[in-house]
Amino acid sequence: MTTTLTDLAAFLSLGAGVSAAVSLPFVLWVDADYLLVENWQAVGDRVLVEVTNLRHATRDARRSAAVTVAALLLLLSAPTAEVTR
What we know:
By secondary structure, this protein is mainly α.
């Protein structure tokens, strides 16, 4: 039985999934020093700043994606000889 490229891709995907599923609880359990923060106000302010930055970034990304899609539609739907008659 030979190993195909599909088998290798499935094996790598399975390995990545199992690794992520095992490492996430481990990291949350071992690296839980963030729960020992005494000044929660500073953490809350930083979270609000990051959420605001993320909101602006997603808005800009949506806007640029919409412009890109519109430009592609205009380029790909150029009039043909039959339409211009």
